[in-house]
Design a protein that fits this description.
Layout lengths: L3 E6 L5 E5 H7 L1 E4 L6 H12 L4 E6 L7 H5 L2 E4 L4 H14 L3 E4 L5 H16 L9 E5 L2 H4 L9 H17 L5 E7 L7 H4 L4 E4 L5 H10 L17 E6 L3 E9 L21 H9 L3 H4 L15 H10 L18 H17 L8 H14 L9 H13 L3 H4 L2 H10 L4 H15 L7 H8 L4 H13 L4 E4 L5 E5 L4 E2 L10 H9 L1
Parallel strand pairs: 3-8, 3-9, 4-6, 4-7, 5-6, 7-8
Antiparallel strand pairs: 1-2, 1-11, 9-10, 10-11, 12-13, 13-14
């Protein structure tokens, strides 16, 4: 069924329409400086398409919550745990409810983690619930930044991965991304490049005008026109809108944002003496509040007096250990239970392409289900066990000196690449064929074989191994410190794990 969404007026006063079905398949990128009318455009698109498709709005400023009163959207407050947000997102896809994820009140890192968890829950929904959803992300440069900022690398990687899944792999799962950004230069290129439809608004910086002109297929000299666009006017291009650049004036909307542009207002006519009383005289309500005054720090203790106290101080008696109220934990039993949980996670075909944060939450839940005794592993210990578990070492190899030496060598590497190193080391110790690039790429959590080859080059530069090729073009990896080497293996061989996963799907 073809549905045309009316955005406003185009060239010559004709109606500018968007083919909704085509938009769901090809995605949309909106760009414009603050005040150019991006939020107004998104609101027009959401209002016009509300009767036809389920919608999900990632709202960092709480501007779109007013859609709930007119169109029945459910407002989801993001001040929840990541697990709660993932489960809510899964139920949203199951019951086809339009929602607004309100991120207002959270700091930037919390917004990134909450949006990543929510988008991840929608992306991981069961196949039976892959209904079409229009996913609108306002201020997308916050969730898919082009460069590292003040947030932690873990939060940035988690958020960027969720946005990449939405724009790159979301179409088959029914997720159609509509992302809006103030600056194209601040938006990750791999996220922006997946959009086939564009609406470019007013912008002033040369780098953003040049990128906008490139995306629209315009000459660099024509990029100057983006400076002259009025508020609410955009240049559109894409299979869902127009095959040639088309100027569009966005139409009116039925709802309004809670925050509006500032308007000039006359100052109050207050006499200077009255203004001073308003500032310096406390109101009756303020007088009831307790006054908090800064406490002066105690004077410093002279060095001689401090040394004298240290000399005269007596050692405290050793505390008497109280009898334990809890039964002692069998460490071997606990370690075996942790290994069993880790095997369950590693055997999941999708585990290699999920973020560490999501796998860690899954690990904690499985530990509670299996009633693993003792305190839960922290994130660092979990990453280490995950890397070892992905290597797939049996008891005979794990008890050998060569494997223990391999574990010590892996500790010199970062957490995200230890698993790749251990997989190759295990193959060498067992004299198995060298793993292919596809296998190593999956262990690294990527679909790019070239990244796997770069990792082997990096290990070789660190002096951990030596890579050579035999006369048949097969790869052999030698570990001088382990006195072991892999059997010849085809670097271009397919990953059997990927074939198994595709067959399951």
């Amino acid at each position: 069924m073809k549905v045309g969404i009316d955005l406003g007026t185009g060239a010559g006063g004709a109606s500018a329409t968007v083919d909704l079905e085509e938009l769901l398949a090809t995605r949309l990128l909106v760009q414009g400086n603050s005040g150019s009318g991006k939020s107004h455009l998104l609101r027009r698109l959401l209002e016009q398409s509300a009767p036809w498709v389920q919608q999900c709005v990632i709202d960092p400023e709480g501007d779109f919550v007013t859609l709930a009163d007119r169109f029945g959207h459910v407002v989801v407050d993001a001040a929840r745990t990541e697990t709660e947000l993932q489960r809510i997102a899964a139920r949203i896809r199951q019951h086809r409810v339009s929602v607004v994820l309100n991120l207002e009140g959270l700091d930037v890192e919390q917004q990134m983690r909450a949006a990543a968890a929510f988008l991840g829950g929608m992306f991981d929904a069961e196949r039976d619930y892959w209904y079409p959803v229009l996913v609108v992300v306002d201020e997308a440069q916050l969730f898919a930044p082009a460069a590292a900022g003040e947030v932690s690398d873990e939060a940035r990687k988690q958020s960027l991965g969720a946005m990449t899944n939405l724009m790159c792999r979301g179409r088959k799962r029914g997720l159609a991304g509509v992302i809006a950004t103030q600056r194209l230069a601040k938006l990750a290129k791999n996220v922006a490049a997946e959009a086939s439809n564009f609406l470019m608004g007013r912008t002033f910086l040369d780098i953003d005008m040049a990128r906008a002109a490139d995306l629209l297929g315009m000459d660099r000299r024509q990029a100057e026109q983006f400076r002259d666009l009025d508020r609410g006017r955009f240049v559109a291009l894409g299979p869902a809108i127009s095959r040639r650049p088309l100027p569009v004036a966005i139409g009116a909307v039925e709802t309004s944002a809670r925050s509006v542009s500032p308007k000039l207002m006359p100052l109050p006519t207050t006499a200077p003496e009255d203004a001073a009383d308003l500032i310096f005289k406390a109101s009756p309500e303020e007088q009831l509040l307790p006054v908090r005054r800064p406490v002066a720090p105690p004077p410093p203790i002279p060095t001689a007096e401090l040394l004298e106290k240290l000399v005269k101080a007596r050692p405290e008696p050793a505390p008497v250990e109280a009898p334990s109220l809890f039964p002692e934990i069998d460490e071997e039993e606990r370690s075996a239970a942790l290994d069993a949980v880790m095997r369950e996670i590693v055997e999941d075909p999708e585990a290699a392409f999920r973020s560490v944060a999501v796998l860690y939450q899954d690990f904690l839940v499985r530990c509670r289900i299996h009633r693993v005794p003792g305190a839960a592993l922290d994130l660092a210990a979990f990453k280490r066990r995950l890397a070892i578990a992905r290597a797939g070492v049996d008891e005979q190899i794990s008890a050998g000196d060569s494997w223990q030496q391999a574990l010590k060598l892996s500790e010199t590497l970062t957490d995200d690449i230890q698993g790749v190193f251990l997989i190759v080391a295990r193959a060498a110790i067992s004299s198995e064929p060298c793993p292919s690039d596809a296998v190593l790429a999956r262990a690294y959590g990527t679909h790019s074989p070239s990244r796997a080859r770069r990792l082997l080059t990096y290990f070789e530069e660190r002096g951990l191994l030596v890579v050579r090729t035999d006369f048949h073009g097969l790869r052999i990896v030698v570990f001088p410190d382990l006195d072991a080497e892999t059997a010849p293996g085809d670097p271009n061989a397919p990953d059997t794990g990927d074939e198994t996963r595709d067959a399951a799907e």
